[in-house]
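Teaching note: in complex prediction, the entire set of molecules is handled at once rather than each chain in isolation. The prompt given to students was simply: 'Predict the structure of this complex.' The entities are:
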Amino acid sequence: MTNLEERLAEINRRSEIIFQKRKRRKHMMLTCIPILLCVGIVSAFIGSENVRPQGEENAWFYGEGSSGGWGDERPEIGTEYIEKLLIEISADDAQQMEDMIRKMIMGSQLESSGSDMTVDSPTDGELRTVYQIRIVRSDHETVSYELWGNLLTDTKNEKSYTITRQQRLALLEALECCTAN
Amino acid sequence: MDNGASSYRRYLSGDEDAFREIVQAYFDSLVFFVERYVQDYAAAEDIALDAFTQLVVNKHRYNFKVSLKTYLFMIGRSRALDYIKHRGKLSMIELSEAEQVCATPSMEEVLLKDERKLAVNQALEQLSEQMRIAVHLVYFEELSCEDAARIMKKNTKQVYNLLYRAKNTLRTILEEKVS
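The expected output is the structure of the full assembly:
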């Protein structure tokens, strides 16, 4: 490329390409930024809708105004994950279930305090289910218990009882039958 | 002599002919300088075109604190080093092509009509790259040591040292050649 005109033409061609690229980039920025902003705002809005506050969650689990369960003094469980399950039993099964639980409580050992509770410690990351059992008697009176590992708690007097593994399995089986019905 | 700064000022104020003057004045010497690094005429020409394109697309990047020639050479050096880094300095060439290349007058031969300069240029090939570039900028392009230092990204003292060592080495080479 010895000709001056050729050199100038090549420089102009290259400059034009760079200008075009810049123009395209600018256009893309102007188009994409409002879209990205909209997507960001919408996703942030959806995100805030889906996150339920902790207090609201507890209210759902323990019942509005209820002081049952361990409340805020629930012992720390480390890294395990807890699934909360509410089981309500009424009608024919209510009496049967209450009798079963009472029998277990009578035969079990009363735990002295919260700090002495001996719950089977789950392995890290294991999903631990806490069952809240609400029994509605025929006279509409309600009693509730919580089953967390091998600890059965009467939420009325906040007393916890240790039950055996067999009793726990039997209780879970009975609960499953009740919910199936 | 402002080494192109006034022409570039005219170009910025809309005079298209000023750019033509700049290309005419500095294109060949820039190619010659870049070729010292890349050892390939086609690549050197491509890099020089890129350097001039930068003058067009980044009009306000040049701050007029150095001469336009120095600025162009700074761009050329930076691009040449990038080129060497990405493609490697050595390239294979067919023997028949090499003969053809040797038969046509090289860029150096066209520019260095002076026999003495041509002899020095041939001796220059035996110097290290840094010495070669310093000698090229100061003696061939007739730039000041300060400008050469700016282009080479060194301080002036280092350029003086390079030139001193280069002169001693060149003297030995040329004396051997004469004898």
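Point out the following to students. The first helix of chain A runs from residue 4 to 50. The radius of gyration of chain A is 32 Å.
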